[in-house]
Design brief:
Layout lengths: L1 E5 L5 E5 L6 E3 L6 E3 L10 H8 L15 H8 L6 E3 L6 E3 L19
Antiparallel strand pairs: 1-2, 3-4, 5-6
């Protein structure tokens, strides 16, 4: 990774991390430039997940309406069956009779 620096004459420079805290000369105008210490930036969890890309199917995050047993099964690699709500088309647990998103009653004859 590199440290971004601007010399006193406005030239944008990129310095190696090994130059952090030291003085150097601008390669364009030879003006002295102090390279600042590298700043540790806080990275959000969402940024990390975006960087990692798509995750395997057995995700352990809790969706709205999931019970503790559903989250535990997902953590163990067992993905509970899902179905789609006929009204809002969102994916919900298969044993749900009322959609937690649009509150539509979706039980069928097979659920009786």
């Amino acid at each position: 990774m590199s440290i971004q620096v601007v010399c006193p004459n406005g030239h944008a420079l990129s310095a190696k991390d090994s130059f952090a805290g030291k003085r150097a000369l601008c390669p364009v105008c030879k003006a002295p430039v102090k390279v600042p210490q590298a700043v540790a930036r806080e990275v959000s969890e969402d940024a990390i997940l975006d960087y990692l890309g798509p995750q395997p199917a057995a995700q352990t995050h809790r969706a709205e309406g999931d019970s503790d047993a559903t989250v535990r099964m997902a953590a163990e690699g067992h993905v509970p069956p899902k179905k789609s709500c006929g009204r809002c088309n969102r994916e919900i647990p298969a044993r749900t009779h009322v959609c937690p998103h649009c509150h539509a009653y979706i039980a069928g004859l097979s659920d009786l």
